[in-house]
Amino acid sequence: MEFSLVGDITVETNSELIRQKYKQIIINAITFFSKETGLTIDDMKIHIVISRDYINDIKKRHYQPDEINDINSNAMFIPKDYQNEEFRKIDKAIIIVNLMKLEAYQASLCSIESIIIHELIHYYDYYFIYPNNVIDRYGKIICSQPGSIEYVIFGYFQLRSEFRAKYFQEKYIVSGMEEIKEDYMSKFLVRIEFSNNSNLFYTLSHARGQLLCWETITDENQAAKDYIEQRKNEIEDIEKDKCIKNVADIHTLVEFFDFCDKLKSAQEPSAIH
Ligand SMILES: [Zn+2]
After folding, report:
1. 140 CA to middle of ligand 1, Å?
2. What DSSP letter does each residue of 204-238 carry, written as one string?
3. Do 100 and 147 fall within a single domain?
4. What is the average pLDDT across 165-183?
5. Between these two residues, 208 and 264, which has the higher pLDDT value?
């Protein structure tokens, strides 16, 4: 069953009960997203799938279905460049929510809303920042060749987006809290995964996003400040060891472009010769 939520935002579910439950959840997420980014409902063209068959629902829409295996994420964002021919024609960003997983750990309404906000931030980065700010400067780096500098720049574009998505997701979760406690932070701080590079990059940028968010609301709580400082130091050691840029330092567009420009000019032969 597919229904039109508001404006050009559509939602797909397989039951009336889920439709009723998710309607308000998605509206709450969009309201927060809109307030944070300044995008209005009229700017948004999105299709959201509330899925009980997560992997197959991704495969059905993804341009490389064979690459999609063993994914156990809460949700996934599929921008147009990663959609197959059939779905590209519909010309909508796609968000797929892993309902089975959310039900299995009995996710709270607030947590489901925060997950949708996370995916909406990716939407903002891929559908507004990328075409309006990135392409002019570095070209269509989404499909660049591994080994090229454009590929590295796109890698950092993705990490920056992960950082921002996690930052705003966390901001939404803690917005109702008066103060941030150490036991909350130690329970929910993303664990850094070393199993492969993409997991390492991914978890580092998420942890950085959370720490920056918490830092803004610790105020006078010294124990919380110390906790954050300690975790930042540990993460910095990992980044230095693996030669990974701290993505919190390049989260504004100015910082991001400055960093990428330097990467690019370091690759090019000097004009003086
Ligand atoms: Zn993400």
Report:
1. 20
2. HHHHHHHHHHHHTT-TT-HHHHHHHHHHHHHHHHH
3. no
4. 91
5. 208
User: How many domains, in total, are found in the chain?
Assistant: 2
In contact, 231 and 180? CB cutoff 8 Å: no
Cα(148) to centroid of ligand 1, in Å?
24
CA 72–ligand 1 middle distance (angstroms): 13
| CB contact at 8 A, 117 and 29 | yes
- Spacing, Cα 164 to ligand 1 middle (Å): 9
Please check whether residues 70 and 164 belong to one and the same domain.
Answer: no
Is the same domain home to 102 and 149?
no
Q: Are residues 109 and 155 in the same domain?
A: no
Distance 273 CA to ligand 1 centre (A): 43
DSSP state of 193: -
Q: Is the overall model pTM greater than 0.70, yes or no?
A: yes
The mean pLDDT value for 232-255 works out to 96
Domain ranges, residue 160? 143-267
pLDDT digits (tens, 9 = 90+) for 86-136: 999 999 999 999 999 999 999 999 999 999 999 999 999 999 999 999 999
- Whole-number Å distance, alpha carbon 162 to ligand 1 midpoint, is 5
CA-derived radius of gyration, the chain:
19
What is the Cα–Cα distance from 232 to 212, expressed in whole angstroms? 9
Residue 14 lies in a domain: yes
